Amino acid sequence: MNMKILRQLGIILAICLAAEFIVSLLPIAFPSSVTAILILAALLGLKLLKVGHIQETADFMLSNMAIVFVPVSIGMVEDIGLLKGQLKGFLLVVCASLVLTFLGTYVTVRIVQICLDKLAGQGGASDG
């Protein structure tokens, strides 16, 4: 296996482990995956980590992300009997969360686009 990919995977796993450690210290329940994303965003924002340091492995993981959802989907199909009598409520929650997720994503992307446009107008944007 390519050493570059192993190094990239090591960086991503180190961030995940750091997030697990931080979450274990918190007095409240908080998802370590969200903590890992926040750590990654901070490292990238502070330029302590460059996109190129994790690009290939992150692209591979993103392109194969559907594999992660297969066990969950199978588990839901196996436990479909638990939803009997509550299917309407379940579908309502799923549809509402889908719409809210789309709206949240749209708003976030628009905010980032506006910020990038402002930075480009000031000459502060860089490709790196």
What general form does the structure show? extended
How would you characterize the largest beta sheet? none
Q: Unreliable segments (pLDDT under 50, ≥5 consecutive)? A: none
Assign a percent range to the helix content: over 70%
Give the number of helices. 5
The average pLDDT score comes to 87
The oligomerization state is single chain
C-alpha termini separation: 27 Å
Name some characteristics of this structure.
128 residues; single chain; 5 helices
Compact summary:
The protein is mainly α.
Mind explaining what this structure looks like?
This protein is mostly helical. 74% of the residues lie in helices and 0% in strands. Helix 1 crosses helix 2 and helix 1 packs across helix 3 (55-63).
What's the helix and strand layout?
Blueprint: H1 3-25, H2 32-45, H3 55-63, H4 66-78, H5 87-122
Helix pairs in contact: 1-2, 1-3
